[in-house]
Write a sequence for this structure.
């Protein structure tokens, strides 16, 4: 069960969860840790002020800091808020997990409540340290989050199963062995910490101290807390809301926000989700079993490679020694090649063993955690985490597919030494590449009429010569780097046609192909020269876009069905050259602020472009614009957009810069520099905006002349 331990630790404090709560994103936090990473937001962003202004909000509002006045006029990108009410402005600090924490301006008043239950400052928000989603708390504060009692139960059983002695919970560095436990404080103490933190006087004199073992038993026998509704704290959960996927009480159905939702019996949904998780675990268990057998196979391969290597080296040394002094220098060269092949095979197999061992340990840990969760008898607590666990189990099972359990290397050394040549031919001595003596296949022929390029893709076709009698088992297609560099393999397989994507625009590539069988490889075909397009023609990509994006006009026009910002990428990525495209605004209602720019393929699709570190964007409203990357806003510039406006995006990867234009005028300075890697055109918008993409455009003349002068 040790592999499950990471599932049971808080991402903030790194210790086992204590009083864990479930965030809306399905991640967990200790209640005390959640309070430690709270930040205060401006009054205008609080749920109360939003309701007063008439805008509809949910119980927990995800932060939208796009237009909040968090930044100075110089756009430093580092914000600060005031402290609590009537407190002077206090700069924010960063916690170890990267979340900005804003300390109170004055010491909090004395209270008898624990830190986790103390009142939460108004207008507070919390950022999940795992998925980095932020949300604003309502009047209930942290009490509005359900407690994960299932996780508490699993942690209790895990800690009880460990035979190690109980440690003091208050030692700062190396915890000492606990000598007593206070039943009222529910804390284990060593003798020094008991004298320092729990003296036998005052109110603490009435506390009962017991031996650690007895304290562990009393913890295990303590009754489980009854599950209560977060909205109606005096009511127990009695039903399950299918639409919201959460347990609810009868008052939620009669007068709360679930009154019109579909509900089902709590016990029935509990059994259904347990059954679904069990079925998902069956498939994952089979994969884990196969992985264990596969690891045994790989370990046996290591031994076989070692034995074959020793045998092959001995044979090679014996043959080379027979050629006396004239063969000594050549013998060293051949041994070096064998050792290189030996190390290569071992490295490939050991790397695969390491990779599969890590993946199997993670899979086993998830399985053990899920099995412990299934043992829980708390329906509502189980249902709070079952959906997320089912998704994780299916995702982990899928990761074991796609050839993961196939060895990447054979154990044989397909080399043999021919020692028949005369002494005058010793300098030509070399390995015969295969043990078999059958001929290699004929050189394949590139079919020029079927080879072509489109945008930054190249399609090549080839065939065997008409009179060839030696069959080919496969082909190896090689391309250079588009700059006269070395060739590299881009395809290995049985097909006689291949399309290579992701090439550089406006570049010249050389291509060649060769055939192979068990005997060896053929000669290379003639080299074919290919020229990629000077400019890029592309459309928006429905495959990678958010599900709320609506496409039309052959995927050149997009809008959105949601009031929240959603991201859509272009189909073509750029890593070299200068590229320019434009976007026209077809519809612009209620002054939204769409964002335009570039992004990595794995950018977040459900937030405004530029919120994470995978996007570089300019977002603009009807009056002004800002540049944004990794949620840092800079260079506010006057001048906005309206219906009919044209936004130009210029990505110059030769100079590593990104520049924006509005109606043929440059908007602000150069937006971003040091742009390196693969970038995709990107847009984020909501239902109030519709835009159309225009590609295949040359670089503006004024920019070309400016670049030539520079």
């Amino acid at each position: 069960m040790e592999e499950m331990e990471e599932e049971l630790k808080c991402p903030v404090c790194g210790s086992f969860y204590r009083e864990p709560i479930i965030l809306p994103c399905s991640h967990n936090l200790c209640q005390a840790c959640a309070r430690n990473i709270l930040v205060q937001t401006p009054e205008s962003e609080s749920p109360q002020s939003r309701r007063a202004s008439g805008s509809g909000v949910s119980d927990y509002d995800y932060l939208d800091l796009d237009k909040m006045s968090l930044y100075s006029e110089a756009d430093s990108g580092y914000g600060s808020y005031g402290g609590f009410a009537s407190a002077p402005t206090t700069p924010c600090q960063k916690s170890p997990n990267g979340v900005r924490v804003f300390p109170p301006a004055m010491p909090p008043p004395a209270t008898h409540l624990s830190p986790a239950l103390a009142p939460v400052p108004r207008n507070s928000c919390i950022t999940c340290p795992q998925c980095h989603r932020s949300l604003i708390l309502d009047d209930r504060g942290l009490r509005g989050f359900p407690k994960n009692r299932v996780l508490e139960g699993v942690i209790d059983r895990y800690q009880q199963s460990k035979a190690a002695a109980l440690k003091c919970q208050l030692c700062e560095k190396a915890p000492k062995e606990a000598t007593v436990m206070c039943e009222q404080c529910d804390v284990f103490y060593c003798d020094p910490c008991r004298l320092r933190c729990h003296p036998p006087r005052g109110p603490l004199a009435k506390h009962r101290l017991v031996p650690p073992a007895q304290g562990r038993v009393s913890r295990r026998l303590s009754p489980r807390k009854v599950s209560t509704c977060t909205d109606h704290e005096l009511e127990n959960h009695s039903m399950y809301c299918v639409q919201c996927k959460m347990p609810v009480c009868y008052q939620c159905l009669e007068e709360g926000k679930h009154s019109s939702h579909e509900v089902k019996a709590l016990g029935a949904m509990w059994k259904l989700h347990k059954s679904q998780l069990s079925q998902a675990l069956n498939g994952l268990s089979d994969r884990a079993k196969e992985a264990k057998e596969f690891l045994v196979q790989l370990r046996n391969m290591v031994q076989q490679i070692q034995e074959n290597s020793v045998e092959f080296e001995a044979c090679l040394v014996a043959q080379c020694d027979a050629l006396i002094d004239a063969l000594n220098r050549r013998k060293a060269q051949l041994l070096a090649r064998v050792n290189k092949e030996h190390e290569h095979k071992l490295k490939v197999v050991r790397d695969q063993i390491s990779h599969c061992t890590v993946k199997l340990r993670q899979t086993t840990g998830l399985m053990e955690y899920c099995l412990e969760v299934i043992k829980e008898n708390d329906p509502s607590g189980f249902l709070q985490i079952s959906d997320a666990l089912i998704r994780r189990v299916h995702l982990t099972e899928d990761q074991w597919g796609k050839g993961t359990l196939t060895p990447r290397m054979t154990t044989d050394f397909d080399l043999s030494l021919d020692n028949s040549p005369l002494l005058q031919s010793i300098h030509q001595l070399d390995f015969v590449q295969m043990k078999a003596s059958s001929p290699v296949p004929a050189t394949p022929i590139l079919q020029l009429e079927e080879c072509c390029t489109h945008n930054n893709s190249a399609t090549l076709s080839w065939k065997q010569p008409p009179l060839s009698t030696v069959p080919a088992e496969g082909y190896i297609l090689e391309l250079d780097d588009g700059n006269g560099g070395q060739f590299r393999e881009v395809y290995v397989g049985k097909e006689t046609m291949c399309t290579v994507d992701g090439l550089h625009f406006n570049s010249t590539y050389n291509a060649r192909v060769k055939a192979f069988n068990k005997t060896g490889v053929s000669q290379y075909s003639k080299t074919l020269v290919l020229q990629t397009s000077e400019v890029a023609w592309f459309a928006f990509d429905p495959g990678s876009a958010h599900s709320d994006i609506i496409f039309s006009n052959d995927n050149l026009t997009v809008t959105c069905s949601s009031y929240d910002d959603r991201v859509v990428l272009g189909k073509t990525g750029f890593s070299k050259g200068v590229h320019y495209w434009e976007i026209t605004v077809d519809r612009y209602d209620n002054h939204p602020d769409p964002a335009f720019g570039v992004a990595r393929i794995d950018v977040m699709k459900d937030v405004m472009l530029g919120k994470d570190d995978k996007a570089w964007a300019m977002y603009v409203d009807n009056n002004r614009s800002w540049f944004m990357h990794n949620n840092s806003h800079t260079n506010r510039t006057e001048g906005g957009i309206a219906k009919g406006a044209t936004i130009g995006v210029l990505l110059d990867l030769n100079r590593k810069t990104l520049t924006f234009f509005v109606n043929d005028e440059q908007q602000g300075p150069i937006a971003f520099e040091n742009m390196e890697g693969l970038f995709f055109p990107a847009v984020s918008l909501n239902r109030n905006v519709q835009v159309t993409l225009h590609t295949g455009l040359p670089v503006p003349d004024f920019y070309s002349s400016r670049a030539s002068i520079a």
